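new request in #modeling-help
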Amino acid sequence: MNSKLTFTAVFLVLACVVLRTSAQEKIEQWGRFEITLTDATAQNPFTDVELTAIFTCGEESVTVTGFYDGNNRYKIRFMPQTIGTWEYVTRSNLPGLSGLTGELECVPAAGRNNGMVQVHHTYDFRYADQTPYYPFGTTMYAFLHPDTEREEQTLRTLAQSPFNKIRICLFPKTYEYNNDEPRYFPYREVEGAVPYSGRRAVWDFSRFDPDFFAHLERRIDDLGRLGIECDLILFHPYDEGYFGFDRMSRDNDLRYVKYVVARLSSFRNVWWSLANEWDLLRQKTREDWIEILETVAQSDPYGHLLSIHNGKVYFDYYHPLITHCSIQNESACEEFGRAGLIKDCYRKPVVFDEICYEGNFPNRWGSLSGQEMTYRFWQAALVGTYATHGETFSSDDHIAWTEKGAVLRGEGAPRIGFLRGIIEQTGPLTIIDNWRYPNFSRGSNGQVVIYLGKESPQEWSFMVPTRTRWADGTKVKVQLVDTWNMTITDVADEFVTKRGQYEINDREMKTVQLPGHPYMALMLTPEPAEE
Amino acid sequence: MNSKLTFTAVFLVLACVVLRTSAQEKIEQWGRFEITLTDATAQNPFTDVELTAIFTCGEESVTVTGFYDGNNRYKIRFMPQTIGTWEYVTRSNLPGLSGLTGELECVPAAGRNNGMVQVHHTYDFRYADQTPYYPFGTTMYAFLHPDTEREEQTLRTLAQSPFNKIRICLFPKTYEYNNDEPRYFPYREVEGAVPYSGRRAVWDFSRFDPDFFAHLERRIDDLGRLGIECDLILFHPYDEGYFGFDRMSRDNDLRYVKYVVARLSSFRNVWWSLANEWDLLRQKTREDWIEILETVAQSDPYGHLLSIHNGKVYFDYYHPLITHCSIQNESACEEFGRAGLIKDCYRKPVVFDEICYEGNFPNRWGSLSGQEMTYRFWQAALVGTYATHGETFSSDDHIAWTEKGAVLRGEGAPRIGFLRGIIEQTGPLTIIDNWRYPNFSRGSNGQVVIYLGKESPQEWSFMVPTRTRWADGTKVKVQLVDTWNMTITDVADEFVTKRGQYEINDREMKTVQLPGHPYMALMLTPEPAEE
């Protein structure tokens, strides 16, 4: 195959042209500009060719790396972040690819394009255009690896779902509940080579399969059109050597992440998740992960969100290149007073990217009730962190959403949507007095949210912690939130505050009648005190 | 005063002699060797003189910094950590102090000298001689600042107490419950200068008062003789500018910590606590603290334990120079499943150096019951972290132990001693299955400790999590631990294990009768299964 390619190259060596780009092409801010170049002179275009382009707009300059896309074609992609005219010039060790110039016009974004999601105010996220972003994610490890029909069905389901983030694996899984043969592989096989017993194939780790990546890219754009961020998992342990992508050499690991970042960093809705359950990838050390982390960060000219997900042992989330905590913890969202401890330790946004799944699996991690899933989302949101959903219902005609997608069966998803609506109204929540009142939070808009969790009281005496700092005489409107039945009911009474040492009460000690079932919350809106 | 000193110096300039050290003085390993030199040539001996000594034993070499001790005397102290003959040579910018040589013989330690406490196995501590050390500390901010009689009384109380660590402030406090005028100050006053309104004095921050430090050192040695580690708090916010030690310039801060470390690093029972409630010292930024941290670490040739205590906001405990987490949290030890989250985040030993105090103060932080104080110690120990005690009883004849010492009044202290005895038997505890069974721990000796906390069950069905990994048929001895009444009772029944998916039970489903009151624990000791 190598020799055939070289032979063909002789005839194509002079045919270097720039395709698909015209002078002053208009590209939306945070959109994607792409140059396609052809050149047939490289022995192995994946490994032998260095190709970059410098894009310049006024004093701003961004260097991006190109990549080989098969059939003698090279691509350079660029996501302009500043409106105006950008000029570029290419650089390459192949003379035919070097010194090419052109320009594009970056124009204001429109429609569902708010730019990349970034960290905001230590613990939160927002889009580049300053629109707030609250991650309400779901998990579908093998979204990319079943058949096209199921992918389309999954996208239709997502379009109707409350989810604005999805965790997907780049590499295929071979795992309980998920042993389908993938349709695409990221690498080409070494032709005629016989794999070791128990291995799927002998891969040529120096030659990626562009078809695999074209498919991935199409799906990332599909997600983007739905307003869904793609938290792309670069490595995972659910392979155990069968495909062998969990135990490549360090050089191959680094070549892989560079290729992925070169292809995908211009996709504004991509987040880098270095691994799912990093500590279960036993062939790699913490030092290996630091090198992968640094490589991804250095290769990405835009600074996409970047984290790594744990099994039992947390990674070094305080590392400056890690933008947020992507944490698995089966118990942190199970009781009041826990999730916030992690936020306090790391001083970064915390996303609980695994809190067990809603479903009927026999494993304890795959058998939450819809009530419990919803409750854990509330626990996370209450302290200004975020949970991520997953579903593991298994029946004759259905295999776990979190493995393969298709349709949602659980009761949690709509309630998560209801919670998302509340958080979009209140803004991110912060515990008001975190050592004493773990269920009283304040939104950035000043409203107070009190979550009663699994308690089923018949009434609630008006009270907020003194640290709420509402002046005496403040009038407060109270709403009753039924987090399970998804209703918000105004309480007719008007409440007026009176401060004590640690608590603010109603000055007539008024109470609110409650329905006596669990999963209730109260939303309090203060009105300016009269003069 | 300056000019008088200079005048005297003219007559003493040639009288440089080495005092109090003879050839081959014998010093215990981790003991203290001291050289005294005299020289009267310096204008300001605190700021103008550089003095170090290089101690060498075979291939090992340690450079220590000397300090000015008043009356034209300079001292160099050294803590040998290796047995053998050490030779030294001094270096100074004062010719009379430079190039002096001598030697000492480091001999094996005896008695209560186990060396410095250091971090062991990520989460634990041990002495340099490998003896385990489990911190059971107490707090007495103004130990140094009342009268001598009370200091002596405090030492007698400590000698009878379970505590092996004490947190004390170097600087005096001026604070609610603690406004006594100190007897010693760390600095000399500028004679005749009139302080601003509200200030205690005008200090000459370039001239320390050696009497203050001699007093401190005597007390640190007193504590050492009792086997008590001295967690020395270098800065604190309980001053509000009255003494002004909370708002010195950065240069003065750094000169201060260098002087303290030069004087005290040869004391094996000293730990550096950069601050109490660092985040309430509002004149300093995180960057200031990092510089103080680096200065202390660089000045200390032995690597004493080094941390910083928080108010509401944690410091960067993951910083490589911070040896362990010294954390205030009023709620982390209040419920199962919390304290361990912090340990998992930082991957360092965690000492909860403030969990509220046992007492009758009107503040919520100073009014724990003895039961609650004991309970919190158990919560900390159960997850392999450690709590620190404090007492805030106030009456006509008694002011808070945690402010001024004297006598202990609380009910917690003896129960803390009882717990210490159990941990010394089991070794440090680790939660067996931390996301599911937050009250089941295993000691490093293989025993399982189950803490029932505030629950008052009448009986307990034999059960441990499967991750305990006890084989089927293992015989287990059960002991009932009454953590409040301080009794350990053997259960007559013999239990034999049978494994399920997540739990190991007794194969006959035997139960243990419990007394029906709270604060009980069970201690399980497996015997090797018969062949």
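bot summary: The first helix of chain A runs from residue 2 to 12.
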